[in-house]
């Protein structure tokens, strides 16, 4: 297999699916890993038979290791891993959140990223060819968002882990970076809006560029970090949020700001 091989977790929807389509269109063989077997099969069929589908759960340490071993046996290579798998936070006040809910969010986002990165790096660091790992964080990991304590803690942990892994695996030719998305137009965000848990109009008014982020915006950032154009970039967290974290004013963007 001469085409670069990229493994994407949580690949059946949202950012993961947008990334899979982009990488496939630019010459990569894509291995899609997701828990939803039916959706996974449909996505593989859309990409083409030479792409791979792996049913799996990123919180299953043995399962992830076995899946990557099978992938390496089949293809003999693993050039890039995109750690995208995640679940929604409960969006409840901290005092109402259960420990079980908190642990579940951390398990999927933070532990899942750790488990998959470690399994991939065991091969990448010893292959002599290096590799690239791109982790998905969030603006919730760099700023305080009420009712997002578990999600924010997980995403902040991903940034810290990205930097540590970059320093540890850099001498073996493995680059590790993170993308920090803002509010992304996904089915999940739409469901939260319909449930009255987020106000999309208020969010748009708070974003300097005035619109939500599209999944393909994040896919392009991932592509850049995975590409040779970023060969000297490692241990960084690239924010793609339309200016959300840069804005420090009161109220909406465009309103006159007091002294």
Strand order of the largest sheet: 3-2-1-4-5-6-7
Q: What's the CATH superfamily, by name?
A: NAD(P)-binding Rossmann-like Domain
- What would you say the CATH architecture is? 3-Layer(aba) Sandwich
State the domain count: 1
Counting DSSP H or I runs of 4 or more residues, the number of helices is 8
Shape: globular
Q: Which percent range describes the beta-strand content?
A: 5-15%
Radius of gyration: 18 Å
Q: Supply the CATH class.
A: Alpha Beta
Run of helices and strands: EHEHEHEHEHEHHHE
Major beta-sheet overview: 7 strands, parallel
Unreliable parts: none
Number of strands: 7
The helix content, as a percent range, equals 40-55%
Averaging pLDDT over every residue, what do you get?
95
Report the end-to-end length measured between terminal Cα atoms. Answer: 61 Å
Task: Write a compact overview of the structure shown.
The protein is built from 8 helices and 7 strands, in the order βαβαβαβαβαβαααβ. By secondary structure, it is of the alpha/beta class.
Walk me through what this model shows.
The protein has 259 residues and is α/β, with parallel strands linked by helices. The protein has one domain: NAD(P)-binding Rossmann-like Domain (Rossmann fold, 3-Layer(aba) Sandwich), CATH 3.40.50. The chain contains 8 helices and 7 strands, in the order βαβαβαβαβαβαααβ. It has helices spanning 14-25, 37-47, 61-75, 99-127, 149-169, 187-194, 200-206, 215-226; strands spanning 5-9, 29-34, 52-55, 80-83, 131-136, 174-181, 237-240. A 7-stranded parallel sheet has the order 3-2-1-4-5-6-7, sandwiched between helices. Helix 4 (99-127) runs parallel beside helix 5. The mean pLDDT is 95.
């Amino acid at each position: 297999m001469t085409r670069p091989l990229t493994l994407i977790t949580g690949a059946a929807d949202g950012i993961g699916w947008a990334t899979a389509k982009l990488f496939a269109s630019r010459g990569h063989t894509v291995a899609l890993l997701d828990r939803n077997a039916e959706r996974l099969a449909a996505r593989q069929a859309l990409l083409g038979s030479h792409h791979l589908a792996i049913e799996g759960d990123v919180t299953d340490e043995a399962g992830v290791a076995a899946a990557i071993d099978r992938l390496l046996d089949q293809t003999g290579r693993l050039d890039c891993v995109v750690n995208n798998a995640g679940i929604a936070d409960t969006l409840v006040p901290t005092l109402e959140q259960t420990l079980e809910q908190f642990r579940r969010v951390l398990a999927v986002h933070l532990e899942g990223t750790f488990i998959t990165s470690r399994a991939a790096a065991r091969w990448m660091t010893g292959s002599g060819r290096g590799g690239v790992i791109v982790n998905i964080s969030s603006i919730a990991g760099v700023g305080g968002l009420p009712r997002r304590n578990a999600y924010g803690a997980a995403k902040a942990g991903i940034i810290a882990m990205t930097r540590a892994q970059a320093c540890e695996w850099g001498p073996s030719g493995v680059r590790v970076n993170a993308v920090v998305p803002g509010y992304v137009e996904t089915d999940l965000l739409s469901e939260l809006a319909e449930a009255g848990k987020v106000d999309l109009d208020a969010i748009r008014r708070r974003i300097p560029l005035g619109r939500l982020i599209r999944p393909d915006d994040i896919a392009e950032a991932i592509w850049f970090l995975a590409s040779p154009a970023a060969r000297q970039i490692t241990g960084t967290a690239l924010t793609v949020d339309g200016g959300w974290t840069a804005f420090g004013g009161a109220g909406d963007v465009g309103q006159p700001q007091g002294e």
